[in-house]
């Protein structure tokens, strides 16, 4: 897999590293790790963490739009990284 993007997020709950990889899918694969004592630990529920970070940083991503089903993790992650990098 090829690394496409990396974003560092300093949240009220600590430091997070978000990665996007090219894996042959139309949308990049998302990986979210929380940095604990200098060690990257995978986040068990990426969607829930994206929702929390979206709220914390007031990015106003509509992850459950009325006109379609809710965004999947790849779509939500892509939108989060795009808006967070600004």
What does this molecule look like?
There is one protein chain. By secondary structure, the protein is α+β, with helices and mostly antiparallel strands. The chain is 28% helix and 36% strand. The protein is built from two helices and four strands. It has helices at 46-56, 73-85, and strands at residues 2-11, 14-22, 29-36, 39-42. A four-stranded antiparallel sheet has the order 1-2-3-4. β2 and β3 form a beta hairpin. α1 (46-56) runs parallel beside α2. The chain is globular. The two termini are 25 Å apart. The model has no long low-confidence stretch (mean pLDDT 95).
Name the beta content range.
35-45%
What general form does the structure show? globular
- The separation of the N and C termini measures 25 Å
Detail the poorly predicted runs: none
Please count the helical segments: 2
Q: Strand tally, please?
A: 4
What do the pLDDT scores average to? 95
Give helix % range: 25-40%
Major beta sheet, specifics?
Answer: 4 strands, antiparallel
Main sheet: which strands, in order across? Answer: 1-2-3-4
> Which H/E pattern describes the elements?
EEEEHH
Main structural class:
alpha+beta
CA radius of gyration is 13 Å
How is this fold's topology laid out?
Layout: E1 2-11, E2 14-22, E3 29-36, E4 39-42, H1 46-56, H2 73-85
Antiparallel strand pairs: 1-2, 2-3, 3-4
Helix pairs in contact: 1-2
Tags for this model:
2 helices, 36% strand, alpha+beta, 86 residues, globular
